Amino acid sequence: MICILIGAPLLHWGYSNAASQHLGEKGSPESRGSGDTLHQRFLAPKGFERTIVDANGFESYLRHLPLKPEGSPLLNFKGGVLEKEGVYAAVVDLPIGNKDLHQCADAVMRLRAEYLWRKGRYNEIHFHFTNGFDVNYEKWMQGYRIVIEGNKTYWTTQPRASSNTYQDFWSYMETIFMYAGTLSLSKELDEVEVMDMQIGDVFIQGGSPGHAVIVVDMAVNPENQERVFMLAQSYMPAQNLQILLNPASGDVWYNTHDLYPLETPEWIFKAGSLKRFKK
Length: 279
Description:
Blueprint: H1 38-41, E1 49-50, H2 58-63, E2 74-75, E3 81-82, E4 88-91, H3 104-118, E5 126-128, E6 134-136, H4 137-141, E7 146-149, E8 152-155, H5 166-179, H6 182-188, E9 190-191, E10 202-205, E11 211-220, E12 227-233, E13 242-244, E14 254-255, E15 262-264, E16 267-269, E17 274-276
Antiparallel strand pairs: 1-11, 2-3, 4-13, 5-6, 7-8, 9-17, 10-11, 10-17, 11-12, 12-13, 12-14, 15-16
Helix pairs in contact: 3-5
C-alpha cells in the first residue's frame, strides 16, 4: 500500500492556489481530442499510429479507461480536492473507496485485477503480501478470509458462503492494498527491456521509498518505428488514478528513445525499472 514520501525524489508535489491549474486542461493541443475515454481524449502524436492490440486484452482495457469530464478535479479518498500543478492531464473515472489505501502500487494491482475480474478470469487474480503470503481471489470468493497474527498469516478454515459480487472483489482488493505494495509487487513482475515495452507494463521501484506507474497506451511512427507511450498513476494520500503529463514536454506522451532516467512529475525511475505481469 505505502508509497513512502520521505526522501522520495518528488518533483512537483504540492498544492496550488490556482484552481484552474489542477484541471485536465494541459498538454499539447495537437494530441488533444474529446470524449469520455483515454483513447478519445488523447490523440496519437502527428505521424504516429496507435499500436495494434487485442480488443479483448488488458492493453485495450487500459487504452479505453473511462475519464472524468474535462475540468474535473483530482480527489483524494475523502473527496477533498488535490491541486497538483503540472502533474496530470486527466482523471480516470473509477471509484477508489473511502480509505487511505488506493495509492501507487495499489492502483496498478487494481487495474490488472479488475480487468481479470470483469473477464471472469478469477483464477488469475492473486497477489503476494509483503511477507510473501499468496492471496488467491478464487479462495476469497469461496468465502475464506485472511487471519494475521503477528508474523503468521493464514486462511480461516471455515469459509462463509461463496460470493462474487463487486463488493466482495473490492473487499479483497482493499485487503491486498493494506498488506502489499511496491516491494511485493516488484517481486511478482518480470523485468523487460524498453524496446519490448507493451501497454500494461509497469515502471516500478520497490521498497521504502517506492513508486509505480503503469503504461496505459502506446503509439508508433510507421516510418521510423519510433515509439511513444502514456502513463497513469495514483499517489499518496489515496487518490484518483490520473493520466500523467511529461515534465519535459507538457504533453501526455513519453518517448522510448534514450529513456532513462525516466522523469515523471513525481518520480524519477532508473534503468531496469520496467516490468511486466507474468502470463
